[in-house]
Fold:
Amino acid sequence: IGKKGTDEKRNCINFKPGLNLYGVFRHFKQNGLKQAMITMRVGDFMISIDLEKACYQCGLAQHLWRLMGISETDPRLLELAPLGWCAVVLVFGLWDSPRLFILLLKVALSQCRQLGIRVSDLVDDMLVLDGAFDSCLQSAFLVLYTLRLFGWRVSLKKLNALPPRELEFGGLVLDSVTWFVFVPEWKRKKHCAAHQ
Structure:
């Protein structure tokens, strides 16, 4: 499948039809833009932090690999690999992957919150907020350091080094001065072009 925003391609297999037959879905609370708005104060500076290939960073214990693979008798094997293979990291499409990922990330973010850092998360994106420019930079550095201590890798390409008061997060633009949330201009133009 295509990687968002690039010409790159990546391999993808849908484990949903087979593996999800053996699991029980558990509802869980996932943070969203509402949590970011609750965390934000008027005039806050903001830095967004994005994890690099987030699910690849969640390794599976070796004794589980055989449960996440394709056997030699599986008809999907012929399409994928002649010798068979198995997933060794958290898999997209597995019923419990989002919940497990968020639980793992919460451990690191709770450490940041105990330090008094205001940080909101939306799956693998984090928003660090502070009323002062310098404090926002320091808070972001501490979040980056804490994530690194817990073994998470951050996408430095997507990191905004100078904290603005208006920032795109979760597909929308958050403005801490006017307290508006709106669709970015590039998305509006793309939508208008598609409907003409």
